[in-house]
Amino acid sequence: MKMKHGLGKGMMALLDEQTPVLEDKKNVSTIDINTVIPNRYQPRKTFDEKALQELADSIREKGVIQPIIVSELGNGKYELVAGERRLRAAKMAGLLEIPAIVKDFSDEDRLEIALIENIQREDLNPLEKAQAYQEVMERLGISQEEFAKKIGKDRSSVANTLRLLKLPEYIKGKISTGEMSEGHARAILMIEDIDLMIDFANHIIEKGLSVREAENEARSYRKEERRNVSRETSVRRNREMETIQENFIKALGAKVELKGSVKKGKIEIHYFSRQELESIYKLILQIKR
């Protein structure tokens, strides 16, 4: 049976090690475990040995609940398409045969399944998941919306996960070590200033804030951020006014004060004698001409 382009919910279930197979049992074959070669497109190179051993113990006790998926190569050989952890664990458990669903796949399908199987790992932290999402999208050349459909999630959920990649490296480190959750990270993303982000991340950890508390307090940090922007804008405007004022003083040779802003205000020219007043008047006339 040919696989339709893109993974449907049935195929997604086939990638889940804990979900009983939904396909008709007649599509499941038992094959020699040593006839299966690795997936050439498998991006994952390292596997958690402890987790593999736990899976091997489960397989030894209950067998392989979920068949692996393979593609027939001929000469009694098969290429693994999905289920590398199951295959490795089954070998560790000493199995000589393994249940498998044999299907035909295009090279694009093989890559797609291998990548998407990789992001379904339970041991991925939020940041690793975001990086995996990005890798799949880049390697398959698809949009967030297309990717969301392939993995059965809302586009907004995918977008929120990918936003984690915009966090400063310091905060990414805190997520990787489990010091803060994805919910905390999303609260931090409500802030734009990097220094305030880092300050807020430390505040979350030190106070042990819940996600909801972090979201509420992030609003206060955003107000502080806006105040900082307002202050910076005010400083820029003051500097601009000072420059213009200095130019007036140089041009007129008198004390000049600008009041207001560059858009609206008034100019005060100070003089201390009739002679100085006449001199300023003549200079203004010359400028006017």
Overall shape: it is elongated
- Poorly predicted runs are 1-24
Largest sheet: 5 strands, mixed
End-to-end Cα distance: 89 Å
Strand content: 5-15%
**CATH-assigned fold name of one domain:** Conserved hypothetical protein from pyrococcus furiosus pfu- 392566-001, ParB domain
Going by CATH, the architecture of one domain would be Alpha-Beta Complex
Nearest-integer average pLDDT: 77
Number of helices: 12
Secondary structure class reads alpha/beta
Secondary structure tally: strands: 7
CATH class of one domain: Alpha Beta
Give the topology string: H per helix, E per strand: HEEHEEHEHHHHHHHHEEH
Strand line-up across the major sheet = 1-5-3-4-2
Q: What keywords describe this structure?
A:
12 helices, 55% helix, disordered N terminus, 289 residues, alpha/beta, Conserved hypothetical protein from pyrococcus furiosus pfu- 392566-001, ParB domain, five-stranded mixed beta sheet, two-stranded antiparallel ribbon
